[in-house]
Amino acid sequence: MNKKQIISSFVMTILILTFMVISPQYIMSSRRLLTLQRNEQNIEGYHGIIEVWHIVGFKPYQGSLGSWVDRTAQQLEKKHSGVYLEVDSISIEEYEERIARGEQPDVFSFPLGYLYAEQLSELTAELPELRGNLAGTGQCGGELYGIPYAASGYLLVHNQRLMQERGTDTESISVILKSGKADAAGDIVQAYIWGITGEVKAIEDFMEERAVSAFMDARAAGDLFHKVQSGKGFPFETVSCSNYSDLIQLIGANKNIDKAKLPYVYEFINLCLSSENQQKLMSIGLMPAIAEIDRQKADNEAVEQLFIELDNIAAPNSFLYKTYKEQLQISAAEAMRGSASAKKDLNLRLTELVRDAAIK
To answer: Could you give the CA distance from residue 64 to residue 59 in angstroms, rounded to a whole number?
Structure first.
């Protein structure tokens, strides 16, 4: 090996040794930088479980609203690593038992009239245009505590077998009901608004064919429909009732919620109000809260009648309704028996409860 080759080999050796010393630090530095950049992209303000109680006060015509809420929660989970929404569908009774034990969720999905504003955080969300007067249902003292996202309603149902036995049809039975000479059952406030006079029986009387007509919620009508399809029950027809409904589901945050969870709660509420998810409500017979959602024509006649009435829904304020509900029923019963003072009291209460809407 000549002198030139020896020098070249020596230089190459020095360069290789230098590379071996320097390169690990450079590579590790670059990896740390890339890792930091990746972590910055995936950083969440909160990691853990956000507990949602879906309190079931009413059910849709068919299917489950709780399942809809759960699927909506899964959409948020897919967008945020380490953030989980645990949706628990519970009855009113179970809700009361849990509250009595000191349990608290982060988020309430609650039926109108079942929570006090004091249980909820004030919301700063800007509401989209809502159907009818729904925008006012979750307000208290001018502040927003609950946001309505789904609505159901009532139908007037006639037992066709009893009508045939009595020689009446839909038009004549309506006249007889308003005169107080026919048996009616079901929701007493709906009966008053519709124009019933006399006594209103329990819904069980209608189901056991001791009343010719009933004011029943959409789910009860749906269950009756499926019962007839299976060869049980009795033939019936449904008639539009009114655009008044207290069957509204709202969503709100617990007043004691960890503030780090709030951005995800707002995002969850936005998902509940998204056009895509609001459209899906109609498949289970619920009316979307968002006004811009075009009402689809329902395959079922009863659901179509419901949608037509709820298109311009008149609903009571949730927090006032919690206070007035029992008195409304008492006044309605007395008013239908002929009490002028009860009728005056009921009309004043309904006017206060149902703001910015006309009950039709």
So the answer is: 7
**Cα separation of 172 and 174, whole Å?**
5
Residue that wins the pLDDT comparison between 9 and 283: 283
Condensed to tens digits (0 to 9), the pLDDT of residues 311-351 reads 999 999 999 999 999 999 999 999 999 999 999 999 999 99
Q: What's residue 126's pLDDT?
A: 86
The predicted model scores a pTM of: 0.86
Cβ-proximal residues to 24 (8 Å cutoff; 6+ apart), any chain: none
Tokens matching residue 110: 């609650």
Cα R_g (the chain), whole angstroms: 30
| CA dihedral (258, 266, 88, 59) positive or negative | positive
CA distances from 31 to 35, 38, 39, 279 (A): 6, 10, 12, 46
- Best CA proximity match to 252, nearest among 241, 263, 232, 266: 266
Alpha-helical regions (H) of 166-287 = 170-179, 188-194, 203-207, 218-229, 262-272, 275-281
CA count, 13 A, side-chain hemisphere, 100: 6
Question: Of 115, 43, 125, whose CA–CA distance to 80 is shortest?
Answer: 43
Average pLDDT, the chain: 90
